[in-house]
Amino acid sequence: xxxxxxxxxxxxxxxxxxxxxxxxxxxxxxxEEVRHLVLRTDDLSFDATAGNCIRVMAPGQLGNPWHxxxxxxxxxxxRNDATEFAICVRRCSxxxxxxxxxxxxxxxxxxxxxxxxxxxxxxxxxxYPFVIPxxxxxxxxxxxxxxxxxxxxxxxRQIYEKIGGWKGRVRLFYGARSPLEMLYxxxxxxxxxxxFDQPTFKxxxxxxxxxxxDAPVELDKALEQNAAEVWDMINRPNxxxxxxxxxxxxxxxxxxxxxxxxSGRNWNSAHAALVSSGRWSEVLY
Length: 285
Fold this sequence. Notes:
Blueprint: E1 14-24, E2 34-41, E3 53-59, E4 66-72, E5 76-78, E6 83-90, E7 93-95, E8 102-104, H1 106-113, E9 119-126, E10 140-145, H2 149-163, E11 170-175, E12 201-206, H3 219-225, H4 227-235, E13 240-245, H5 249-261, H6 264-276, E14 280-284
Parallel strand pairs: 10-11, 10-13, 11-12, 13-14
Antiparallel strand pairs: 1-2, 1-9, 2-6, 3-4, 3-9, 5-6, 7-8
């Protein structure tokens, strides 16, 4: 596998964890394999909360001892003797730009191939970009693609199960290749359906019109169809905007937001205000 990147330095503080559960959360008919992994570490010094990330240390290649990738912590439970937490992993592959060959993603395939009682190394916690505001009247706008749903699932559960009484609007715009890949919103796993009856929560789904041809997911259309509410939320002074997913989703989202705002100038001004006030957070994989 060709690479021009220098080897990443090993994290200063590492832990070991045992896989206790690996569950596919996309239906068998889906060509996308996404797994919900539950891990347990007996090292009680690992101090993390849901929404933090860990840096998984997969065995390296081409002389590099480690191949690291960041994954968001979803559920986490501390007991007297161990800490158990979950991450969401999509089995990935990519096409080499030089020779056109397809290669398996190192970290994702390593994780998806693990079996219960296997051990892995990781570092963390890393960051906590999505902080729920103290003001329960604040609006929260979540924009996600693919496994970017993982931190949002955590946020939604915290808002309605742990905090409760949320008065602001909570809006999730989530895109996937097809309905089969709507993570936590498909026939295999429908966790988010538990919150559809919350009066302040709405979820808007977007899929590709031609998934077999790799046509883009129409997240932009979902935003544009709800332009009035999205623009109203963006202009409220206490709104938080959270973005999670693949890095290439930003171009699609920017174009949609220009349409929502009515012009590039309006969107650039609104976006700058969100960033400067600390109300815009993103995690891109």
